[in-house]
Specification:
Blueprint lengths: L10 H10 L5 E5 L6 H14 L7 E5 L10 H9 L8 E6 L7 H11 L2 E7 L7 H7 L3 E5 L5 H7 L3 E6 L5 E6 L5 E3 H11 L5 H4 L3 H21 L1 H5 L7 H13 L7 H10 L5 H4 L5 H13 L3 E8 L4 E11 L2 H8 L6 H15 L3 E7 L2 E9 L2 E10 L3 H13 L5 E8 L5 E2 L2 E5 H6 L2
Parallel strand pairs: 1-4, 1-5, 2-3, 3-4, 9-11, 13-14, 14-16
Antiparallel strand pairs: 6-7, 7-8, 9-10, 11-12, 12-13, 15-16
Helix pairs in contact: 1-2, 3-4, 7-15, 12-14
Amino acid sequence: MIESHELKNRERYLKKLIGFQDTEPVKVITGIRRCGKSSLLKLMIRHLQETGIHEKQIVEMNFESHDFRNMTSEELYRYIKNRVLSGKRMYLFFDELQRIEAWEDAVNSFRVDFDCDIYITGSNAYLLSSEYSTYLSGRCVEIKILPLSFQEFLDFHSFEVLETSSALGGTHRQVFDKYGERYDLREVFDAYMRFGGMPGIADVGLDQEKALSILEGIYSTVVVRDILEREKRRGQRQIADAALLRKIVLFLADNIGSNVSASSIGNTLMNEGLIDVKKRKGFPSAHTVQAYIGALLESYFFYEIKRFDIKGKEYLRTLGKYYIVDIGLRNYLLGFRNRDSGHAIENVVYFELLRRGYDVAIGKIDNQEVDFIATTADDKLYIQVTESMQSDDTRKRELAPLQKIRDNYEKIVLSLDPGLDSSYDGIKSLNLISWLLDS
């Protein structure tokens, strides 16, 4: 975790938190472990102090600390009650609160009994699952935090993008590090695609061995604390087979952006000899595989994207796709090599759209597919992602589904090599790296 004196701003998320400051809802910050939730709390605390809130009005607790990890909800209530200042508004910050059983009872009591503003983080989606959120229904707002965007990656690693003049009279972007060394923008983007966006890597620099150590720690913590241990607290289906879980993780990581189902995963693991059928007494059922996938989705390790029929205007129950929350974690799991780069950049685009506030689906039109339909309350984008638009065959393939869509919303092809044409029949062809920087 980044220490307070080194705190890097996560402006997009901090603005959201500040926007909800002193409003009734409990602010719930969710996301995979080590993506910056604790640092966001510290940024918010710093904001409060800078705007005149006295430090005694702020209570900060991290339930992974030995001081608090075995606390009961009753002890938590007494701890806070003893720190409440009469006639003053309190600001309560609870990090990894899901480790406290019946935490929701204590939070509800704080809301009723004290004048307070409450902020919570959690590394598992069951923090807001139906069994708990009923206690807070209508009284909480979720702020979903993701690993670093490409823009944030540049900032965290002390890179600066500057416009420089080209020999032909135009301008192009170049990147400078804090020592004044100059880099090509594509070179730094390739580093992002290699190391990913987990904030902790900025503490050790772009060193492969150190980065792998950090990514391994994140993977192990997610698997142990948020998946293998989680069932003990819930009394639900036990996710107990760590080896099977890792095989499913590897399968999903290797197949990001591909249409898969729980039954196809089980069959593939068996057919490729990744599961010893004799030892397991049969290969895992689709139900078992789905339970393991559900645990990975709950821990924010993978995200599922549904298919939407553009003509029929309905979501389809057929095969969806999965994307991994951080491309660096994928490289840790599968090895640092140039594999499946088309799906890898698709993965980056998917999470950038989520950061920008879009709901995202796969588009189906006739027997063709649009990579992403991105919608907000008042906007819609149709997006194709490809490495290059240089060849005629690629252009035809990428443009064909977009050309079938009859509405007037914006249609875009994002690529690392868009070629000379900036549009085709009203369909924009944009450079992916520029698009990531121009949010």
